[in-house]
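Listing 4. Sequential folding, example run.
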Amino acid sequence: MNYLAHGYRFLDSPYFLAGTATPDWLSVIDRKVRVRSRAATGLVDSDDEPTRQIASGIVQHLADDQWFHQTRVFAETSLRFAVELRDRLPGDEGFRPSFLGHILVEVLIDATLIERDRSLADRYYDAMDNVSGVKVQQVVNAIAKVPTDRLDGWISRFRQVKFLYDYLDDAKLLFRMEQVMARVGLPPLGEHLETWLPSARRIVADRCDELLTKPLEIIVA
């Protein structure tokens, strides 16, 4: 899941919402800084309300990612994208199509949610404006084995840039994907995906509700 899919149910709880975004924020600024569910669970009963909410949001994110990535619909959709992307990225039989297919399913879920109700993104950012980046960074440093001094600054930039809205426009979305490719050290995408993205959007839009539904067998387990 991406930011909005993780958080749209928690827009009335800003610090919980920030917790649901924290693992993804950390993957952007420093992948060595990891928040584990066991360590975060140790703070869910904190006497400090923001600390408790941030830690609970982190636990929620990790639990949701676990079931989401196990679903058949996610596996089918990301594999379909990987195969189609492999045909559109010349000479690329390696990791990039699979990685990009995975990321695009998640990003296009957020795009679908915003297309259905733009106020979700508006409220998401409004809620984030009520969060102290310093506080989130303090909680992360209490959980993670490797500390960070970069999270507060990134949260400020995240709120300023508001890149979730870019997912609605193909050219802007491709620009964001190029940034991801550069960040993880993969080759640029070029102009090979412009004609493909509209069909990918339709596929995810058609399957969005299914993608966001936790399967019964995973609930029972």
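-- end of first protein; second protein begins --
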Amino acid sequence: LPCALEPAAQAHLAWLDGIGARQLGALRRLPRAGLLRRTGKPLLAALDHAYGDAQALHQWMAIPATFAAHVETFGRIEHAEALLVGATALILQMTGWLTARQLAVITFTLLLEHERGRAAVPPTLLEIMLAEPAWKEAHLLRLLKERLAKLELQAPVIGLALHAGQLQPMLPPNAQLFPEPGGSPADFKRLLELLSARLGPDNVLTPLDTPDHRPEQCNSWGPATRSMKPAADADELLERPCWVLQQPIALRVRDERPFYMSPLRLIRGPERLEAGWWDDQAVGRDYYVAQGTDAACYWIYLERSQDARWFLHGMYA
């Protein structure tokens, strides 16, 4: 390489040309002491950096604390599936950021920007919620592809923006030698995520525990990708029947005993329930486990009111 390429040698090019040192290799072979007296330290320092003889202090790459990336499309995109090319580039950037930060994503958002002007349409928001934290691009792209396949664009898209929402530390890989039979819990959750993306979150549901003592209120259904709360204690679950009727059935009374296909014998109880006063649906009940002559067990209650009546509310397996 010619010495003219080194900025520190510009002031000494005439002298270097006169002594025949026109290339950096020839300049490097000159005695350092004499070169230092004639040119000074800057040229020697630049020469050492060029050949890697000097220690270079490099700055560590600063990884952003949050992830947000944007890309513009090459033209007006009118079909949602055509957005997958730009979305793939954004997903690859996000997974690289997740790996560098040792994080996994739980929710991320893809923003579709439409044309601006008088007839401008607000950006379309696609929020992807995962049942389990993930960081691998193949799984994230599969979910995004399913969502885009169901999307109908209101207007042409001119740009995409991806934002990582809720995050969690990345879990260590499974160290088991043999795979679990039937798949691991992570495989099951990935299947739920894929079904939710394909069928819609309102069509893939899971039972949710609601903090309410009333049996007709404590059980509800929600999206399967929603973060699950810890289940109730096992001892408490054993007291409840697997089948709770949506509408309690009024029971007849024979010989001062509740009757359902046969006289019922109370074998456990009472369990008193007082709740619902805060929403004008107050209930006062005494619950019992009763058994019929066929050994079938039922969950019944006595309504605590002036006109006390027996009701069947659930059945045990």
